């Protein structure tokens, strides 16, 4: 198995303790960085019940995602070479099929931040969220047609539309908390969102939630979900239990 469950290197300095991968039963683990800089753990799982987990405390400023509505959109010839791969089609993002639609739908929107936000608004309003709609093989085109999905489907569709509009976009996976949100709270899960390249840097956009979120913790990023599966198995396996939690630690706990 290959597992991408460790906090991204950009946040490791915020960890109170290492978020080491542990297994029951214990097995040797080999770690390495993939081509996108993500930290990967490689192991051979024994037959029978096998549990993997990570746990840590991370310092977070508790601020919403950064925003700059004046961030400019670069013309393709002015983009750095390292971001060009995030303009191309990928496993779940069929830019060749959705290109004409993207330009018809968003071609009159102002360049830059406003155009990306228009894409997020469209995806958020068009797609109905539900865990019962989860399907590992659903692509952006299928999401457009079926109009249902989970956060990865929202993200793949928004990424594809942005790439069609010559805006580099990449897929991110990690934790998004319910801190600051009104109850009731849905069961916690890993989340997917995107980053787009505007004004010389990458910015977070979240087409599934499309609102202010606190405590967003990045695990991995790539072209789409095919690059950053949380777990990848090279043999038959069955997931029998799955738990994700993000709890706020009180700064001044009552003794």
From TrEMBL:
Residues 143-209 form the Transglutaminase-like domain. It comes from the Bacteria. Pfam families: Transglut_core. This is Transglutaminase-like domain. It comes from Methyloceanibacter caenitepidi. The lineage of its organism: Bacteria, Pseudomonadati, Pseudomonadota, Alphaproteobacteria, Hyphomicrobiales.
């Amino acid at each position: 198995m290959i597992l991408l469950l460790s906090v991204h290197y950009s946040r490791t300095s915020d960890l109170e303790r290492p978020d080491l991968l542990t297994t029951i039963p214990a097995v040797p683990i080999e770690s390495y960085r993939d081509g996108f800089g993500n930290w990967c753990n490689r192991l051979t799982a024994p037959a029978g019940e096998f549990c993997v987990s990570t746990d840590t405390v991370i310092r977070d400023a508790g601020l919403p995602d950064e925003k700059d509505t004046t961030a400019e959109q670069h013309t393709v010839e002015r983009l750095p070479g390292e971001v060009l791969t995030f303009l191309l089609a990928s496993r779940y993002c069929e830019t060749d099929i959705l290109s004409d639609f993207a330009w018809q739908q968003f071609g009159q929107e102002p360049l830059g931040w406003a155009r990306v936000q228009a894409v997020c608004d469209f995806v958020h309003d068009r797609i109905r969220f539900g865990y019962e709609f989860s399907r590992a093989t659903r692509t952006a085109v299928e999401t457009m047609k079926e109009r249902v999905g989970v956060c990865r489907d929202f993200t793949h569709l928004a990424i594809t539309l942005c790439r069609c509009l010559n805006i580099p976009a990449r897929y991110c996976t990690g934790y998004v908390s319910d801190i600051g949100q009104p109850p009731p709270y849905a069961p916690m899960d890993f989340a997917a969102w995107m980053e787009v390249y505007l004004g010389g840097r990458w910015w977070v956009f979240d087409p599934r939630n499309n609102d202010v979120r606190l405590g967003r913790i990045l695990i991995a990023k790539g072209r789409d979900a095919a690059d950053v599966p949380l777990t990848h198995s090279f043999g038959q396996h069955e997931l029998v239990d799955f738990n994700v939690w993000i709890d706020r630690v009180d700064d001044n706990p009552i003794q």
